[in-house]
Amino acid sequence: MAIHLVLPVVASAMKTAIAVLGIGKLAIIPFLFASIAYFHYDQFDPENRILDVKQLLPSYDFIVVGAGSAGSVVANRLTENPNWNVLLIEAGGHENEITDVPILSLYLHKSKVDWGYKTEPQNTACQAMIEKRCSWTRGKVLGGSSVLNTMLYVRGNKRDFDHWVEQGNPGWSYEEVLPYFKKSEDQRNPYLARNTKYHATGGYQTVQDSPYNTPLAQRSFKQPKKWDTTSGISTERSKQDSPSTSSQ
Ligand SMILES: Cc1cc2nc3c(=O)[nH]c(=O)nc-3n(C[C@H](O)[C@H](O)[C@H](O)COP(=O)(O)OP(=O)(O)OC[C@H]3O[C@@H](n4cnc5c(N)ncnc54)[C@H](O)[C@@H]3O)c2cc1C
Question: Taking every annotated instance into account, which residue ranges of this chain make up the domain Glucose-methanol-choline oxidoreductase N-terminal (predicted)?
């Protein structure tokens, strides 16, 4: 149902509530909105809910298994070509109201959007856990593990990429993957966006510093002592070329 169809229903419900309860009882309105948002959540979602197909085609140009961080991007890119039919298969269900609130992501662990894996018993880790086994959270939901992660924007370490090339994986050096990191990025922090060697704007993935830090956090983040004039980033970051910040 489109928003222009929902609004008259909300207006009518409010009129009824005022008529029945009187103007003093308007405190019901936030509750009313919360209820409506809860029961018709997907209709208020600007990106709206993806609909499952009811009938499959006899064949597809591409079948992507897993609609997680990688699969969703791959499927999106493939469907940019209107001549291709792409089937995206996901084992989990849809997101819910809680999954859209980043700070609640911890509550999603061990829920129905988590595969619920556990590590094997460990000798040196997970010592306080039952059977010395830790939970190994992985998303089982449209969006995959990105639905219950903490949204930190962390690029892989430069030396890891370069090591992959040394092990016989051409095309995976940091210099070769960097253009794709930049292509996907919409860096909203001007102090980073101006460093065009490492950052870019206009990509699908919005990246920005958290708009609010507690006073304690502000005291914890010390100003960089020294700036690398070639890269324009702090020496601590330039050591591994993996600037990290929040993505939204
Ligand atoms: C708790 C937690 C916090 C994290 N925090 C961060 C962070 O702050 N910053 C960061 O950069 N990274 C973070 N990560 C890591 C990041 O989320 C993952 O690296 C990333 O989401 C992995 O993407 P993926 O596409 O490889 O797998 P996933 O996103 O896990 O996608 C795999 C998908 O495949 C589906 N699937 C599996 N098997 C089948 C099947 N047989 N048929 C159909 N579908 C199937 C799954 O249900 C899932 O949806 C975090 C991860 C976790 C678990």
Answer: 139-162
Q: How far apart are CA 184 and CA 204, in angstroms?
A: 6
> 145, 147, 247: which to mutate for ligand 1, most atoms within 8 A of CB?
145
Query: pLDDT means per 10 residues in the chain (248 residues)?
Result: 58 65 64 67 65 92 97 96 97 87 89 97 97 97 95 94 98 97 97 97 94 81 61 49 49
* Secondary structure of 121-134 in HEC code, one letter for each residue: CCCCCCCCCHHHCC
What angle is formed at CA 12 by the lines to CA 7 and CA 14, rounded to 5 degrees? 95
Contact 206, 111 (CB under 8 A): no
Q: Residue 113: its pLDDT value, please?
A: 96
| Two structure tokens written together for 92 | 């989990």
**pLDDT score of 37:** 65
152 Cα nearest atom in ligand 1: 8
Q: Cβ distance 17 to 25 under 8 Å?
A: yes
Under 8 Å between Cβ of 140 and 114: yes
